[in-house]
Amino acid sequence: MSDAASPAPVRPQSDVSAGVGLSGLAGLASWICLCHFWPHISDYFALPGPHWRLSGPNAALMGLVFAATPMVLWSVLIDKVHRRASTGIDWTIKRPVSAVVDITITKLAGLWATWALIAAIYGLARWYWDGPYLVAMNVLGWASVPLFILSVPYVLWLDRRLANPRDPCWHFGAWLVGREEYDAKQIPIHLRAWAVKGFFTAFMISIVPGGFANLIDRDWGGIWSDPVAVANLLILVMFVMDEQIGTVGYILTMKPLDAQIRSANPFLAGWLAALLCYPPFQIMNPGGPLFYESNTSEWSYWMQGHDALLWAWAALLVCLTGAYAWATVAFGIRFSNLTYRGVLTNGPYRFTRHPAYLSKNTFWWCATLPFLVTSNSWVDAVRNTVCLAGVSAIYFWRAKTEEKHLLSEDPKYRDYHAWMEQGPTITRALGRLFGRAKRG
Asked: Which of helix, strand or coil describes residue 259?
């Protein structure tokens, strides 16, 4: 007699609700519209000050505030994330200051030493003092003094309520101070988390002003009969949303919001795969070994004169970019590379474990068409195709290293991974396709 079939796994509940990202998107969209239409608004109400579009770096950075504020309010007031056990905070505890002051001093020593180390790296690395990174350095330099001052009451307040105030930051401080016993295994956990935050926060801040200015200054009218112009505008809109929401995620790594970095990827392969995709290590930029756009042209070049095909291809590219942006927005205030900050199972993560990587790589193939070259050289066509295949392989490698990290961290992610393999998902369909290809 055969055993009864085991029940299909159930999709675990997501640690981030859809409302978080959507509220941030609404706040950001309102600010973008205000900045773009400011000349009309200021003229209509006869307001003092500038009567031109607000596209400068300060306006771009204010977009972070408009995106972050509703997401924080939704997280606290609606989702009540501060009450979750995963924050590490026990609100029934309120230790006296005298009971935690030594812990706080040790932790502040670790925190300030970490900031000093990051600042030293910023100062020594030349790329941080050129081009777009100058904006990031100015912002972080301006924020350093307030952060230094506010860290004292914040850490003291948090230590009075944490179930275990001796976190990895404390262990790093204890190692530096040398007065108390510490767990050496906690130190690399602390340093990896801050390496992620230090590297990617500066990068994300640096790219925010450029995309924002390009969007605000661009003409939004008179383009809606041109499929290429429409696609370019909508793609730019979604890239700006991705950049702004993603940057907020790196900034708001805070325990009271349940958005802390619970662990950074401990595998060297994960770091290598990720860093190869970002400056100054990026290998697919012009001059890089995997540059795949030699003697290519835009997708519209190859389809000009075929209006139906142009509209269809424009719609495809917009949908792919939309999926990519949605994958970031779904994280809300928890977006970050190389980290575990909870498990997402809703939004685009309902269909595939890696919607951003899948949509981004598909977009590159469809937008670049690397096998079509203006030089009529089959060598260029082959090189471009092989190089883009190499880029896609790196992203596949990134996905696998991220899965390895998350599978080792959280039973919920293991349940999600199992559900994804058996549910009606893109991941399962691709797995079957590649499995058949291997068997064939």
From this structure: coil
Phi, psi of 340 (to 5 degrees): -110, 115
The values of phi and psi at residue 89, to 5°, are -100, 135
- Domain extents in the chain: 255-439
User: What's the token pair of residue 361?
Assistant: 């790589």
Q: Which amino acid is at 195?
A: A
Close Cβ partners of 317 (under 8 Å, ≥ 6 residues apart): 231, 235, 299, 363, 366, 367
Q: pTM for this one?
A: 0.94
Would you state the pLDDT for residue 49? 85
Q: Which helix (H) or strand (E) segment is 68 a member of?
A: helix 57-73
| pLDDT of 104 over the 70 cut | yes
Q: Give the pLDDT band (50/70/90) at residue 424.
A: low
The label of the residue with tokens 């499929």 reads 227
Tally the C-alpha atoms within 13 A of residue 7's C-alpha that lie toward its C-beta.
3
DSSP string for 159-198: HTTBS----HHHHHHHHHH-SS---TTHHHHHHHHHHHHH
Distance separating alpha carbons of residues 116 and 104, to the nearest angstrom: 18
- 238 close to 372: Cβ distance less than 8 angstroms: no
Whether residue 326 is predicted with pLDDT greater than 50 in this model: the reply is yes
- Tell me the C-alpha distance between 123 and 403, whole Å: 34
- The number of angstroms, rounded, from the C-alpha of 323 to the middle of its chain's C-alpha atoms is 14
CA–CA gap between residue 136 and residue 197 (Å, rounded): 13
254-306 per-position pLDDT tens digit: 999 999 999 999 999 999 999 999 999 999 999 999 999 999 999 999 999 99
Residue in this structure with the two tokens 């661009």, named with its chain if needed: 218
> SS3 for 293?
coil
In whole angstroms, give the CA distance from residue 341 to residue 334: 6
Residue 400: name the closest of 427, 429, 439 by CA. Answer: 427
Class of domain 255-439: mainly alpha
